[in-house]
Structure formats: structure tokens, C-alpha cells
Please model this.
Amino acid sequence: MVSFVIITTLVVLANSWHVLAAWFMQPEGTYFTGIAHYFADYFLYTSLMAQKGWIVTHHLFTNESLAPTWIYWLYTMLGKFGNPFLIYNVSVVVFSILLLFLWWKMIKLIFPKQLVLQYIAFLFVATGSGFAGSEFWFSPLPALNRLGGVPHQIFQTILLLSVILLFTYESATGKKLSLVDKAKLWSGKPYGYIAILMAGVSFLAATANPIQMLLLSIAITITSPRSIIYLLPAVFGAIITNIEFARDPILAAAKVWENSQNVSVNLWQYILALGPIAVLIPFGIKQYTKDITPIRKILLFYSGLSLVMFFSPLPKLMGTSPVRWLSPAAYTIFPILATFGLTRLSSQLLSDRRKVDYFVKVILLMIYVVITIPSLFHQIQSRMSAPRDLLYVPKEVIQSLRNLPGTGVVLTDPITPYDVVVPVFTGRKTFTGHPIHTLYPDVKEALRNKYFSGGMTSEDQQKFITDHNIATIYEP
Model:
């Protein structure tokens, strides 16, 4: 357990180091916003938290009058705990620890009573990364991408792993019972609680990530067809989520933008992004499938489907991005296979004698660590790129924003970057601020520049303000 705590602490610290390091260097007279990832997305999510609503949130990065959405319900829940910047980063840490704990529980099920292999597998799960510079967009292969700085993305993985663990418990507890017999246990019995919990978590996982829950549902159904009854709520969750994306103009625009991103990764590039564990994986396949348990089956089918879909033309034909078919949850099988592979390789290299075998394992792990550390440093360094004037906002700017009179849309001078923070500090709409969650962002940016550069007559300026419901002009 000590090794688990050490690895978890180091990985979680590395995952949030860019925020902590920026906090330590905060200049006097500034407000620290704690940007955890791409700044526009970060202020979007913190603005959702700042609304402090109940389930639904309003679109504040575009001036149009749009109906609120429930898609970001997690952020409305988190927003109730206080300062959005603080709670956002605290939630990243808490969710990261919970995610690593679920991976640890899963590893213990796969390697029962094999403490050394449990720690090796956990090390691979927590730190496994590709060679420095081999990452691709939205890839779960770098360790710090599997955790990341976005609470709802970590929460998605937590839900998917929870479904797998609940399924494993259900299959072990009730595998000899018929559905009728199982139904009789639903009142006041632990088995009944697990079944109900599995249905509820499946629903939430489908609303959080319908595509991954689809793959996982197929894998569970293949492994245990009778378990499909617990996955029916996931169908409902996926349906209402897709309806919401089709109904909401902002969400629909975001989906179109994502699908337009070019993701061209061949198998060799994927192997490089997988990193040193890719060398060990082939040696572990035979041992993994030799005594295959329900949890091994589900990981095999789930991860296999994920990989096949990613490399196939089907995602594009279905109107989705290939990266949506990858997930940190589906990644789990690779470090597991690598652990089996390391065991097999170490026993073959020199001898089956225990002391020599242990020595070879240590040597192989040292090689792994030496190769992986530069990649982890590269991941940390690449995150330390937040715009300084948004990371450290002068306190007088914060005060002037909070004191803006009236309500309605705020138009900010393009000479400053403060359009992105307006919704967080004022609760009001901003005319510009996000390349996707602002509808027609290029058109609006051009209009804003024209307004402040003197390219409009006074009549044109008044018409511009009226047509776009602009209530306040902010020029610090």
C-alpha cells in the first residue's frame, strides 16, 4: 500500500504541477486564476461553475438568446462548493486520486495475491507514456493525458471503470442465479444494491460519454449476455444526450468543429505513442488469455473494439471523430498486458530461478523508468504555457469588471484579453471569448476589431450595439 500511495502522490503532483508552480510565482497585486489547461476552455468551465445553478447552465460566451443546457451538470454541482478556480483545481486532484484508486482495485482483481505484479501494473497504468514528442491530439496514451486537467473528462473515466468493477462484482456474486432468483434478492440485499448501482452508473456514464459506454456495453454483453438488463438505462442516457447535442446550437457547432480536426495516426505512430510498454505487450498476450476471468474478458473486448474503431473508417462514416473511440478506460489493458509480458520476458531471459528472475524484473523496470521520465517531464513542460495576463489578472481589473453597471452582453476592447473572464466575474454574456462556444466567432471578432479601430461610423456603431444586444462597453 505504501508504493501505491507514493506513486499516486507523485503522479497527481506531476499532473497539477503547472498550476502549483504558477501559484508559487504569483506577483503581488494580482488575482491567480489557476489555469489548468487551454485557457478558453478553462474559463468556459469555471464560468459554468460560477453560475451556481441547479443542473442547467446558460451559454455566456455568445450573445444570442439560447436555451440553457443540462450537459454540464457536473460543473453546476462543483460550483456549489465555492470559488470556481480553487474548486476546479481541487476537483482535478480529488478525481485523479479516485481514478488511480479504481485502477488499483482493478489491478488487484487481475493479479490477486501477487503484490509485486500489482505494483508493476499500477506503475505502468499511472506513468506509462510514449516517447517524448510522440503524442497526438486527444490521445489517452500519455500518462498526464489520462488524468488531465478537465474534471468532467476524469469523471467520465471514473464512471466507465466503475461500471467494469460493478459488473465484475455482479458476475462473481450472482453468476449461478437466474434473473428471477436475482430479482428476489433486490430487497435489502447487497447483491440488489450492486445491481441498482450498476444501472445508475451505466446511465451516468452514457450521458457523460455515449460512445465509450456503447463499446463497454457491447463488451459486457459479449462477456455475459444476461447482464444487458443492467445496461438498459445506458441506452436511455445515450439517447437523451444525443438529442441534447442535436438541439443545442453551441453543442452542435462544437461537434462539427471536432469532427473537422484531422487525426491521421498509423499503427507505427500509435505504437510509438504507447511507449516502452509496447515492447512487453506481445509477451503477455498468451498469459493474459490463458486463465481468462470476466474482468479480463471485458477489458479485452472493450479495448479491442476501441482500437479497431479508431483505425477503421467507421467513425467518420458515423459523423464522429476517431479520437472519441479512444479512452483512458480502454487504455487499461495495455499496461496489464505489459505486466504479464515483463513476467514472461524476465523468466525467459536468464533463468526461472526466483532471485535471478527478480533481478531481471528490476533491471527491466529501471530501463522503463529511464525511458519514461523524459516523457513525463515533456508533458509537464508543455502545459506551462498559460497566457500570463490571464493567469495573473490585476486586482483592479477584477474590481472594475465586478462593478460594471447593468446587465446584458459585454463588449471588451480587443487590446485586452479580458473577454474570456467576463462570464466568470460578472455572470454576464461576453460578445467574444471562445472559438467554439461563441457562435460565428470569426465574424464577431472582426466586428469587434472594426468597432474599436474606428472602422464604423457612429450610426454603424449604434446599429452594431443594438443588433447584438450589447449593454456594456468595457475599456480598462
In short: The CA atoms of residues 235 and 259 lie 23 Å apart. Residues 2-32+83-383 form one domain.
